[in-house]
Amino acid sequence: MGAEEEFVFWNGELSPVGEVKVSPSAEGLLYGFGCFETMGLSNGRIRFLSDHWDRISRAAADMELECPDLRERLLDQVSQLCKYNHCEEGIVRLSLHKNGRSTDVLLRVFARTPSADESSFEVDLSRFPHSGPSPLSGWKHNNYLLNALAYREAVEMGLRESILCRDGKLVEGSRSNVWVLREGVLWTPPVESGALPGVVRKRVLSSAAEMRVDVREGAILAEDLEDCDGLFFSNAGMLFKAATRCGVHEFSPHLELVNRVNEVLLR
Q1: Where in the sequence is the domain holding 153, given as residue range(s)?
Q2: Within this chain, do residues 133 and 225 fall inside the same structural domain, yes or no?
Q3: How far apart are CA 100 and CA 126, in angstroms?
Q4: For residue 179, which of 156, 211, 152, 148 has the smallest C-alpha distance?
Q5: Are 93 and 37 in contact, with CB atoms under 8 Å apart?
Q6: Residue 171: exposed, middle, or buried by beta-carbon count in 10 A (0-12, 13-18, 19+)?
Q7: Is residue 117, in this structure, part of any structural domain at all?
Q8: Is the pTM for the entire model greater than 0.90?
Q9: Mean pLDDT within 201-208
Q10: What is the pLDDT of residue 116?
Q11: Residue 80 class from Cβ within 10 Å (0-12 exposed, 13-18 middle, 19+ buried)?
Q12: How many domains are there within the chain?
């Protein structure tokens, strides 16, 4: 947790970070039984809240996690955390954890950790293979170890992101969806590959005409990166970002395209 994150909401109560108590028998702690959403925060407001809420609601229903009045309290709690943590620009993280017949709810608001060089976005392929499609693929579930290891690997190498592949095909970034530009078409792996149905991914696909870009879903071979004109990543925190290097392959930052996509996303 960042230095500025002094308070969280734990089961509806404003609590100092150090006073949160978790049951040692809770399935959320023992098995990662739960789901979460990481949402962008701008001027104290959550971006794309309806999309995030729809996704976590579906996952919670499938997991039989109940939190009936959470939506009504969410915006007020975020507003309080913005004040107490002195943060109106950053990340809102809502996570649900199974605890017997009840659901533990953790709400956090914290600033994004800036990169040493925000102008560069260098990545590489992860040595950890993606687990592939499964009944869990559509959920942003708390069993997140594979992604956490892949991200740590990237950070230790001085990189911003790591790409998880399966059977020689790109699936997703450790914390993002991945895109390539090839012959004027912006491609992203289909969710059938195991890629998370990201909120920003969904909006780029649905707003392609407004963004004036041809967007398609399809398989992307790792070996084809050398023939791609651009490499991009998207998530709720950074929106749409161009990579400048992946391993030995260098890419244009495509500032005009990135700015156009982000302008539409933020309308």
Answers
A1: 122-265
A2: yes
A3: 36
A4: 211
A5: yes
A6: buried
A7: no
A8: yes
A9: 96
A10: 54
A11: middle
A12: 2
Give the pLDDT band of residue 1 (cuts 50, 70, 90): very low
Are 101 and 193 in the same domain? Answer: no
What pLDDT does residue 118 have? Answer: 64
| SS (HEC) of the chain | CCCCCCEEEECCEEEEHHHCCCCCCCHHHHHCCEEEEEEEEECCEECCHHHHHHHHHHHHHHHCCCCCCHHHHHHHHHHHHHHHCCCCCEEEEEEEEEECCEEEEEEEEECCCCCCCCCCCEEEECCCCCCCCCCCCCCCECCCHHHHHHHHHHHHCCCCEEEEEECCEEEEECCCEEEEEECCEEEECCHHHCCCCCHHHHHHHHCHHHHCCEEEECCCEHHHHHHCCEEEEEECCCEEEECCEECCEECCCCHHHHHHHHHHHCC
pLDDT bucket at 190, cuts 50 / 70 / 90: very high
Average of per-residue pLDDT across 138-157: 94
Rounded Cα distance, 99 and 137, in Å: 23
Q: Take residue 240 and report the two structure tokens written for it.
A: 């749409």
Please indicate, yes or no, whether residues 138 and 196 belong to a single structural domain of this protein: yes
Q: What's the one-letter identity of residue 206?
A: S
State the CATH number of the domain containing residue 27.
3.30.470.10
pLDDT in tens, 48-99: 999 999 999 999 999 999 877 888 899 999 999 999 999 999 999 999 999 9
Distance CA 263, CA 160 (A): 23
Assigned domain for 241 exists: yes
Q: Report the distance separating Cα 194 and Cα 166, nearest Å.
A: 9
pLDDT band at 115 (very low <50, low <70, confident <90, very high): low
CB 6 within 8 A of CB 16: yes
